[in-house]
Write a structure and sequence with these properties.
By secondary structure, this protein is an alpha/beta fold. It contains 11 helices and 19 strands. It has 2 domains: about 160 residues, Lyase, Ornithine Decarboxylase, Chain A, domain 1, CATH 2.40.37; about 220 residues, Alanine racemase (TIM Barrel), CATH 3.20.20. Helix content is about 30%, strand content about 25%. The chain binds pyridoxal-5'-phosphate.
């Protein structure tokens, strides 16, 4: 008899607080595997992405601009799907810029961040008319030179490396010495030198961190970012069009982690919008998010190939692992490895459970998907589904390692 227990219930055994939306039964995993044509594969649930954005729009201030950072998941069909649901895209390479432009998003709402932009990236960005998030004084000169060459006025926003950090963040990207942005104390002089004939000044980009689940830390860094932008704006010869205060909204991955409460953040954003209205009239306030929009909507599915017992421990050896999903293996920024939430896709309910290690086929002990996790009884041919896999999965993994085939991707 087909088991209709939602996967979600299994996930909850491992991650009690997870707010996962997809209600699928075991049969759907098999069906997706047939659609994908091969296992392993990633599946992204468009209705979950849509629900997330509808919820954000309902709770965050209407005047707030929400941008999607394509690096979280650059699948072209997914970016296309998002193009009429977000207000802009942030890209970090020419390829991402092409994906953003192909989706139909206007270049007016595409920004290009990242240190070390190549000459080709700069020229292509000027030609396309996107906004550069300028990461150094040298880069600014190159952008201006490319603009003169093309007889186009480039659009520039200064990415500021603030003095403050986003506290309790999975990844710090501002504060102290950093390769990102221009140190805040150097920005006034740069702004005084920026000739309106050379470039159209858009404003500031202040991105200080990622994967944060503490509302108060996000609120504090957003407040400081707006204060800093208002202060720096005094030195510019052109008025500010937009202030991008980054994002950093995290999602729960591990037991004990709770979903972010948007309400206090929304309240603070209301105040910031009022402050902006007063001090930078007409300027947009932008937040830029990746994983919060797509992370919980993605699933990575692989198959158990072998099962063996080594000195009393059960090992489920799958055809998926670190090469497809580096983050789930714990090698993408985790200091102490923790298990991503994981379920057995085709045995969503079972009386018998085992404590198992789920590993991949690679020749490294780092190739782990779960350590000592209680799962329904499993055997070769069963599907392992890793939840919370919609961001920094496929595109942030070393597919070339050991030359196994890359996983398929489905937007369903
Ligand atoms: C400039 C910039 N914007 C946006 C993001 C997206 O962060 P997240 O996916 O955590 O929202 C990052 C992540 O590193 C980033 O560097």
């Amino acid at each position: 008899m087909e088991d209709k227990t939602p996967l979600k219930h299994q996930a909850l055994k491992h991650l009690k607080t997870i707010d996962n939306h997809l209600e699928i039964d075991g049969n759907i995993v098999k069906n997706l595997a047939i659609q994908a044509g091969s296992v392993p594969f990633y599946a992204y649930d468009r209705s979950a992405i849509e629900r997330r954005l509808v919820d954000m729009r309902a709770r965050l201030p209407e005047q707030l601009f929400i941008h999607y950072a394509i690096k979280a998941n650059p699948m072209p069909a997914l970016v296309q799907f998002l193009s009429d649901k977000v207000d802009g895209f942030d890209v970090a390479s020419v390829k991402e810029m092409e994906i953003a432009l192909d989706s139909g998003m206007s270049s007016d709402f595409i920004s290009f961040a990242g240190p070390g932009k190549t000459q080709h990236e700069i020229e292509a960005g000027v030609a396309a008319g996107i906004t550069f998030h300028v990461e150094s004084e040298t880069e600014l000169k190159r952008i201006i030179a490319a603009g003169k060459e093309q007889e186009e006025k480039p659009k520039v926003a200064i990415r500021v490396n603030p003095e403050f950090e986003l506290k309790s963040s999975g990844m710090q990207m501002g504060g102290g010495p950093k390769q990102f942005g221009i140190d805040a104390e150097k920005v006034p002089a740069l702004l005084r030198m920026l000739d309106p004939e050379d470039a159209e000044f858009i404003g500031f980009h202040i991105f200080s961190g990622s994967q944060n689940l503490k509302e108060e830390a996000i609120i504090e860094s957003q407040q400081k970012a707006v204060d800093l932008a208002i202060d720096l704006a005094r030195h510019a010869k052109q008025s500010v069009v937009a202030v991008n205060i980054g994002g950093g909204f995290g999602i729960p991955y591990f037991p004990g982690e709770k979903s972010l409460d948007l309400d206090p953040i929304a309240k603070n954003l209301e105040n910031l919008l009022e402050q902006m209205d007063e001090c930078l009239p007409g300027a947009q306030l932008i937040i830029e998010l990746g994983r919060y929009i797509v992370g919980e909507a993605g699933y990575y599915v692989c198959e158990v190939i072998d099962k063996k017992v080594s000195r009393g421990e059960i090992f489920l050896i799958t055809n998926g692992g670190l090469h497809h999903h580096l983050a789930a293996s714990g090698n993408f920024g985790q200091v102490i490895r923790k298990n991503y939430p994981l379920v057995v896709g085709n045995r969503v309910y079972s009386e018998i459970t085992d404590v198992v290690n789920v590993v991949g086929p690679l020749c490294t002990p780092l190739d782990i998907l779960a350590t000592k996790m209680e799962l329904p009884y499993c055997e070769p041919g069963d599907y392992i589904v890793v939840l919370q896999s919609g961001a920094y999965g496929y595109s942030a993994s070393p597919h070339g390692f050991l030359s196994h085939p890359a996983p398929a991707e489905l937007l369903v």
